[in-house]
Design goal:
Layout (H helix, E strand, L loop, with lengths): L1 E5 L2 E4 L4 E8 L7 E7 L6 E6 L6 E3 L7 E6 L4 E6 L8 E8 L9 E2 L3 E6 L1
Parallel strand pairs: 2-11
Antiparallel strand pairs: 1-3, 3-8, 4-5, 4-9, 5-6, 7-8, 9-10, 9-11
């Protein structure tokens, strides 16, 4: 399973940015897919995850109401729309996938895309 993120960049505080991830090598519909992030000097943390079974989505408390994750099964693509960005959202964002469902130890990871939020 291969995951390739795109769409990171620099945005001002309060702004919006969308990132995406194309997944290949497995039937996308059967994968739980999600986003993690890692800020400089901090541990990696889960951001959101969408199940394969019913498409339900879970979010970390620190992004609820600001970030929206979605998936397009026809295009094998995962999206993360980030609104009202804050400097503390600055991190490398990783696309992840797992055959067994959403969990903290997702099986497959992309290389990450950097999101920088300036104050």
């Amino acid at each position: 399973v291969q995951l390739v993120e795109s769409g990171g960049g620099l945005v001002q505080s309060g702004g919006s940015l969308g990132i995406s991830c194309v997944v290949s090598g497995f039937n996308f519909e059967d994968l739980a897919v999600g986003w993690f992030r890692q800020a400089p000097g901090k541990e990696r943390e889960a951001v959101s995850c969408i199940s394969a079974s019913d498409g339900s989505t879970i979010y970390a408390d620190f992004v609820k109401g600001r970030f929206t994750a979605s998936r397009d099964n026809a295009k094998s693509t995962l999206f993360l729309q980030m609104n009202n960005l804050k400097p503390e959202d600055t991190a490398v964002y990783y696309c992840t996938a797992d055959k067994a469902g959403c969990n903290y130890g997702m099986d497959y990871w992309g290389k990450g895309t950097l999101v920088t939020v300036s104050s």
